[in-house]
Specification:
Helix content of chain B: over 70%
Distance between the termini of chain B: 77 Å
Helix content of chain A: 55-70%
Strand content of chain B: under 5%
Radius of gyration of chain A: 27 Å
Largest sheet of chain B: none
Order of helices and strands of chain B: HHHH
Oligomer: heterodimer
Strand content of chain A: under 5%
Largest sheet of chain A: none
Distance between the termini of chain A: 98 Å
Shape of chain A: rod-shaped
Number of helices of chain A: 3
Chain lengths: 111, 132
Amino acid sequence: MVRRDHLRSTAMMIATLAVAAGLASCGSSDAGGTTVPSVPAVTQPATTPAPTTTAPTVTVPATTAAQETTTASTPPATDVATTTAEVADLEKQLDEIDQLLAGVDADLSQD
Amino acid sequence: MTTPRRSIKSTIMLGAVVLSAGAALVVPSAASATSNSGELPARLQRACLRIPNLETRTDNLIARLNGDASTKGSLLWLQAQIDDATAKGRTQLATVLTNRLAVRTQTLQVLTQRQTRLTKLADLCRAHGVDV
């Protein structure tokens, strides 16, 4: 009976460790997979625009001219930490400017 | 006698199942992190490469709006049209053109601000290693 109890407690320990490992893996995947926006999203009305400054989190541009020529055909290695939120904000701003220019073109075509 | 053994076996099996589930959660998250790390620089470069054309278009529009009275679409040209319509007694047309001039004046200010922003965005891209 003592041996069986020992086996049972061992099995319970394995199960507990397995659950702990599973929970730990969930926590680590959340920490690594999701990017927290470092720059707040900029939403401005078109009538009262103001220039926004998107500051990079870390500015360490260390690419040299020689490196740029060698990696011209491939996407450059970003030395600075770029988050998904930063790129999304950049795309959003460019889309907004693109739409503005299209609107101005349409307005000028009325003349 | 068989009941405790079954209980031990089932506990071990439960542990194995939970362990497998934990591993299954780890593998997809690691895969997505890898794909994100490869996708982000390309996405950044694509966005940055849009900037030069937007700068050119913005510069051209600002130059056109700031043009003289002979430049079609410029503020001065529009003012000349308003003066002409007013002189001919076409008050409704003059009102429409006056409203258009007000909008276009604001447009010029907005374009100037966007021009400054594009310059900053280009600097940001260069700081990230993208040659704009």
